[in-house]
Amino acid sequence: MLVFFLVLSNIIQFYFVVNMFLYFFIAFTGLFIIGKKDDKNIGYNKNKRFAILVPAHNEKNVIKNLLDSLLYIDYPKELYDIYIICDHCSDDTEDVVIKHPLRCNLFVMRDNLPSNKARALNWATDKILRVKNYDAFCYFDADSLIHPQFLKAMSKKLNEGCVVIQGQQIPKNTRETIISLIVSSGQFITNYFFQKPKEYLGLSATLHGKGICFSTDVVRKFRWDEECLTEDLEMQMRLISNGIHINWCEDAIVYDEQPLHISQYVRRSVRWTRGSIDTAKKHSKNLFIGFLKTLDLRYLEGFIYCFGVYRVLLVSFCSVAIYLTKDKFNILLDLFYRIPYDTAFKFLIIMIPFFIFPFSIFVRKKVDFDVVVGYFMQPILGFLRVPIFLLGVFRDKKNWGETYHVSRYTIFDLVEGIEK
Q1: Beta bridge partners of 171
Q2: Beta 136-139 vs 50-56: how paired, if at all?
Q3: Are the beta carbons of 346 and 32 closer than 8 angstroms?
Q4: What 3-state class would DSSP assign to 169?
Q5: Contacts of 265 by beta carbon, 8 Å cutoff, 6+ apart
Q6: DSSP symbols for 58-117
Q7: pLDDT tens readout for residues 92-150
Q8: What is the pLDDT of residues 157-171, one digit of tens each?
Q9: What is the chain's Cα-based Rg?
Q10: What is the separation of C-alpha 385 from the centre of its chain, rounded to a whole number of angstroms?
């Protein structure tokens, strides 16, 4: 039994070592390109047509702000259409859309099935493809706010040959509460030390569920998974498994609402955990095999990211196994012992990167100091990871669940030069 613990533990430790070196390499790449920008002269081709899809389930509190932001899109009106999908709304969402001055198409779902974002998108997409042709589809959530230059930036990427593009997601309510500040700080780190360097290194970006652009060919071939609670993550892993590269576009900005309270954060995280577990079961094996066959790092990074949902379970197992076999060879212990100096200084060396990243974006004036403070408050939410994982394991995966969005931030609060 001890041998079993030792062997399995070292296999898992090797996974953690590869994980650590890969993501440290990606993050450190971000240090050198943080100020590097895409060509500011964002061009677009007149033949690029967009369908903008927004599923909404009981979003009366925020849907008007989204519609307001869509009024200010800086792109020829004849080259895009907006489709709002009221997915089994029981509030005034539909009325708000009808009364708003924005020219858009309203789809209403009223069947006997429960609300489901993926199903709503598939249903609307089928209707659209039957009657109109577009070069690409863009997806947003009802709590999103869209930067006026979004379609121009996406059109530029499409003209460069990209077929799946994730825009830069920026929190719209960073300072609304302590919880939103903590969660938002992680999003800024993700943008500059995960998404941006992955784009630079040729790795696939992470899909966030909003601010996404798919070419119509991809839309026709890949439908959203209606059985998964994280349809964006499942789509991401399915695309990577099929050799489809996901680009990231820094200039295509979408603003997103972050949780205001612990209850919102936990509810969202439990749903994400459940969906991530299902995604890992479905795709991790294929991603790993894809890496072994091709040695393409995009498959390996996808596998590591996908399988990361089990990190709470893996860390717990390794901790027990290392304790039981501490006098035997353990990869992590061996690497730790190889670091020179005493134990306290070793921990200091290990912690240095976690200080470098937030302060570097502060020095480059990418974020304010309160965001750096929020970053160092993340351990507060870290204590919730174990119960969130356990709740996610046992969560019902059929019921999507309702997310309450209430932030009052508007596009006028976030983008200079826009007036009501």
Answers
A1: 256
A2: parallel
A3: no
A4: strand
A5: 179, 183, 259, 381, 384
A6: S-TTTHHHHHHHHTT--S-GGGEEEEEEEES--SSHHHHHHHSSS--EEEEE-SSSPP-H
A7: 999 999 999 999 999 999 988 888 999 999 999 999 999 999 999 999 999 999 999 99
A8: 999 999 999 999 999
A9: 22
A10: 18
Q: How far is CA 15 from the centre of its chain?
A: 23
Q: What DSSP state is assigned to residue 310? A: G
**Residue from 232, 254, 235, 213 nearest 50 by CA:** 213
CB 367 within 8 A of CB 375: no
- Nearest Cα neighbor of 64 from 415, 408, 420 is 408
Residues 6+ apart with CB under 8 A from 389: 273, 312, 313
C-beta atoms surrounding 25 within 10 Å: 11
> Of 303, 319, 321, 310, nearest to 390 (Cα)?
310
Contacts of 229 (CB under 8 A, 6+ apart): 271, 272, 274, 275, 278, 395, 397, 400, 401
| Residue 79 burial class via C-beta count within 10 angstroms: exposed 0-12, middle 13-18, buried 19 and up | middle
Mean pLDDT estimate for the chain: 91
DSSP 406: -
**305 half-sphere exposure, CB direction, 13 A CA radius:** 23
Q: What is the pLDDT of residue 107?
A: 96
Q: Which of 96, 105, 109 has its CA nearest to residue 63?
A: 96
* Amino acid present at 6: L
Q: What is the CATH number of domain 1-420?
A: 3.90.550.10
- Secondary structure of residue 397 in the 3-state scheme: coil
Q: Can you give the pTM of this predicted structure?
A: 0.93
